[in-house]
């Protein structure tokens, strides 16, 4: 009885409350986004908002079951979860259902679909935490670093084959986990450098970009010419950067899909296509801007009501918040996400177990990436890559996977004082 009482008080109910608040906000906004006058009830199971209610209830049940499990069970089965999701990722390439140009879904019948990529995020976080928390693992050592990269990279490769660029990019956020566990900050700097090089190589001629980095490298060589080791490093980085710049054209023209290239061009201002590929984002910005300070009111959004924004219940759900609840409502949602992210970091830092701490940083990295990119997309600051807003966007796979991510952390946290 004492253990049960202690368990009850050790669950981080503040985080649970934020989770429930976000799920509820999502449910009501899905109701507004796809409202059907023939099915006005918010729990009408013939509609997406009725189905989302079911998804929320199932997710709460799954979250409760996770809280009742033993932490040792979760830790021990980390490799099993990873293998299962890997098999599903392979299976979706064979029998997957094509939705929006991606072979990302497995049909379960009855209109239900499973998206393995969503659950791969959860299993990858678990296995990465188990590996990095193992004995004699030092992320600063090449062997440990490459194994960690392989754990992250294998599901990324399978998801890229679907091809689902959005879900693939989410896994890049786990670099922050590696950084927290001792990876040199130079890797973050180099990652940022390659992003800048990719974008500038699209905006400008590769020859101009190479000339600029060559001049910068020359200045650094003159400044550090007496340090032979640093000179060698600068020359190596310069050679890699030049090779990367020349490869950008191939990546941009051969690897990216045509619609992805157009979306990047629109964000960078190279093209303006308000009636084509830029239509979604333009309508989203109109919807958010039309909400002004207090919004148009629940079920009174004109952009929402007349379905001007495609995918409004999924990838563009935030524009419904902006139109019907205004700037004030948007700030409330953003505030809840900020509070959740800071709370997860706080929970991760107070863990005694390295496994729990590493897993916590995996959770916050993935949630932060989803929130930042999704909202940046709706206001035109990022290209449309098709990732949901956690706990708010419509979708069973997304909601269930984020619930599992979060509630496993809450379970691990409830045992931080040695209570099982």
Describe the fold and architecture.
With 420 residues, the chain is mainly alpha-helical. Helix content is 70%, strand content 3%. It contains 18 helices and three strands. It has helices spanning 2-10, 13-33, 48-68, 71-76, 78-95, 116-132, 142-160, 165-170, 175-180, 185-203, 206-223, 228-255, 258-268, 279-290, 302-305, 317-349, 354-378, 396-414; strands spanning 97-99, 102-109, 112-114. Strands 1-2-3 form a three-stranded antiparallel β-sheet, covered by helices on one side. Helix 11 (206-223) runs antiparallel to helix 12 (228-255) and helix 17 runs antiparallel to helix 18 (396-414). It is globular and about 75 Å long. The two termini are 13 Å apart. The mean pLDDT is 86.
Mean pLDDT: 86
Written as H for each helix and E for each strand, in order along the chain, the element string is: HHHHHEEEHHHHHHHHHHHHH
Structural class: mainly alpha
The helix content, as a percent range, equals 55-70%
Strand order of the largest sheet: 1-2-3
Shape: globular
Q: Main β-sheet, in a few words?
A: 3 strands, antiparallel
The poorly predicted ranges are none
Oligomeric description of these chains: single chain
Distance between the termini: 13 Å
How many β-strand stretches? 3
| Rg measurement, Å | 23 Å
Number of helices, counting only DSSP H or I runs of 4 residues or more: 18
Strand content: under 5%
């Amino acid at each position: 009885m004492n253990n049960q009482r202690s368990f009850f008080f050790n669950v981080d109910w503040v985080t649970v409350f934020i989770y429930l608040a976000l799920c509820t906000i999502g449910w009501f906004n899905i109701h507004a986004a796809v409202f059907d006058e023939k099915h006005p009830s918010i729990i009408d199971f013939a509609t997406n908002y009725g189905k989302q209610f079911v998804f929320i209830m199932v997710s709460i049940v799954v979250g409760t079951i996770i809280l009742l499990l033993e932490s040792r069970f979760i830790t021990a089965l980390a490799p099993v979860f990873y293998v299962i999701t890997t098999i599903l990722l392979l299976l979706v390439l064979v029998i997957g259902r094509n939705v929006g140009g991606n072979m990302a879904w497995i049909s379960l019948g009855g209109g239900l679909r499973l998206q393995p990529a969503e659950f791969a995020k959860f299993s990858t976080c678990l296995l990465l935490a188990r590996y990095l928390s193992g004995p004699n693992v030092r992320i600063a050592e090449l062997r440990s670093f490459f194994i960690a990269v392989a754990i992250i990279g294998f599901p990324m490769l399978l998801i890229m084959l679907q091809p689902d660029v959005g879900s693939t990019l989410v896994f890049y956020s786990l670099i922050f986990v590696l950084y927290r566990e001792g990876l040199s900050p130079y890797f973050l700097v180099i990652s940022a450098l390659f992003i800048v090089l990719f974008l500038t190589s699209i905006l400008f001629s590769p020859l101009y970009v190479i000339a600029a980095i060559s001049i910068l490298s020359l200045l650094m060589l003159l400044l550090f010419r007496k340090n032979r080791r640093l000179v060698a490093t600068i020359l190596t980085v310069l050679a890699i950067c030049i090779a990367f710049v020349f490869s950008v054209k191939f990546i941009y023209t051969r690897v990216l899909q045509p619609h992805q290239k157009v979306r990047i061009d629109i964000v960078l201002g190279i093209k303006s296509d308000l009636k084509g590929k830029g239509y979604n984002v333009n309508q989203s910005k109109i919807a958010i801007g039309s909400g002004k300070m207090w919004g148009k009111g629940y079920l009174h959004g004109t952009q929402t009501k007349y379905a001007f924004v495609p995918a409004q219940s999924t990838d563009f759900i935030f524009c419904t918040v902006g139109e019907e609840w205004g700037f004030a409502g948007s700030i409330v949602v953003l505030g809840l996400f900020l509070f959740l992210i800071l709370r997860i970091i706080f929970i991760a830092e107070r863990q005694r177990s390295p496994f729990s701490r590493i897993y916590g940083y995996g959770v916050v990295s993935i949630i932060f990436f989803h929130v930042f990119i999704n909202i940046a997309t709706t206001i035109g600051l990022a290209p449309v890559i098709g990732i949901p807003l956690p706990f708010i966007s419509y979708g069973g796979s997304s909601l269930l996977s984020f619930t599992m991510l979060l509630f496993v952390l809450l379970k691990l946290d409830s045992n931080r004082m040695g209570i099982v």
